[in-house]
């Protein structure tokens, strides 16, 4: 770090610097998302992935302009506009997902109020520290995602027209637009959160916040994958596309970029005006809502309960098997809804499922309907099922509270196989069934009908097999067993799932496609899958009869030696062997 920055940081108040470091550790839930809860490791991995994306995106531009360069000014303009729109949309998607993952990081929670209120720390200091921590992660994302593309693409697109002056202006417009688009989206989300926190009581705000968080995941991904790319002025000025331009902020900032670059057509001036107005409104709304929240809601945070008390009257809950199974399935569902840690982690995997589904839907809409069943549809559906089931299994090991731990431990009155059967129902109802229904909706416009129904049957068997595989060695109640910090390793699990899904889905989809065209081959494939499912069920059921539920994750016991015993044989070798035998018998007893 340069000397002048160190001097500038040293001039900041000590309490602000201390709070900034602490809040930076809590911007993202490191217990769930990083290896050994290492903030440096997490930030390094996060920045490394974005830099890699920026590098390959820039490499694609170099290859395009080297081997297939545009031959006309119109073709060059189409390439430039497509690149600008894609870059702005990707930047806004990354910022949107960061904002959703760090959903409540900017607002004071109960722990902040209980710990910091007795201390001589002003509310504005807490607010500035939280904003600085969130802004640091946001700035890192902007820099990493544009570290290579923010130089290479301006060089490729700005140099051919005006030389180095064109390059520098294009580069400045690129970075200013990316920063403005990121600030707009981040402030817009903060504005919505802040005014909801002001209007509703805290317990209602927490429920609405969970719904809004999941809705934001779907909104950002849906807009990114379903929004069209307009590469010509005729397409942008088409009256049928005006509603898309009016309601899509990425097109606003696309016009703002061209305004800063000096290449904005007069027909798009109103879009650039919307970008400036939206940026000012979002920034002003975020400042007002945050200031009011810190002045008015910090006291209410302590006084009001986080959970809504049970209302009197008639209540109905669905019956899923035995009462124990119903209780554990509903407990798992409510844990996903109420717990931010589990909700964000599961939403991460379900966002991948939703993104794959949107890409499939976009391909179907662009093809003539009804479209024939093909491996291009089978492979994404297999990947959706793998990510949904194994993603839910991944977060089953994360506890929700110590209360759930000791309550279920002291009330374990049923055999262990009852609890494991309830866990199986949780996997089927919360992961397999939603993914299967989503696939069924995507296959409405596919033909022939008998092949579509056959694929849905195969996908159901595959989902059940994945659920049974997830139960092997899992002898605990979901969300109740304590765990050692940093053992989740979401990044490692994600890349492992991705490699496994690709390795498995492609050959299996090709084999299934040929089986769907032959009744005998399909019957054989279905029989093999059904036999595998039954065999896994019998294996898990047999193991569950003698399994013992555990509720505590303990660190591995390590025995370290000083290396003082010589490896050479000696006259005491027999005595040492007898001592080792006695020690092993003692351990066995």
Description:
- The protein is mainly α and 589 residues long.
- It has two domains: 3-213 and 248-303, no CATH class; 324-545, no CATH class.
- Helices cover 75% and strands 1% of the residues.
- It is built from 23 helices and two strands.
- Strands 1-2 form a two-stranded parallel ribbon.
- Helix 17 runs antiparallel to helix 19 (416-442), helix 17 runs parallel beside helix 20 and helix 20 runs parallel beside helix 22.
- Mean pLDDT is 78; it is low at 30-37 and 569-589.
Silhouette: globular
Q: Strand percentage, roughly?
A: under 5%
Q: In order across it, which strands form the biggest sheet?
A: 1-2
Q: What is the multimeric organization of the chains shown?
A: single chain
Largest sheet: 2 strands, parallel
Question: Percent range for helical residues?
Answer: over 70%
The number of domains = 2
Number of strands: 2
Sequence of secondary-structure elements: HHHHHHHHHHHHHHHHEHHHEHHHH
Q: Radius of gyration over alpha carbons?
A: 28 Å
In terms of structural class, how would the helical and strand content be classed?
mainly alpha
What is the residue-mean pLDDT, rounded to a whole number? 78
Q: How many helices does DSSP assign? A: 23
Distance between the termini: 59 Å
- In the predicted model, the low-confidence regions spanning at least 5 consecutive residues are 30-37, 569-589
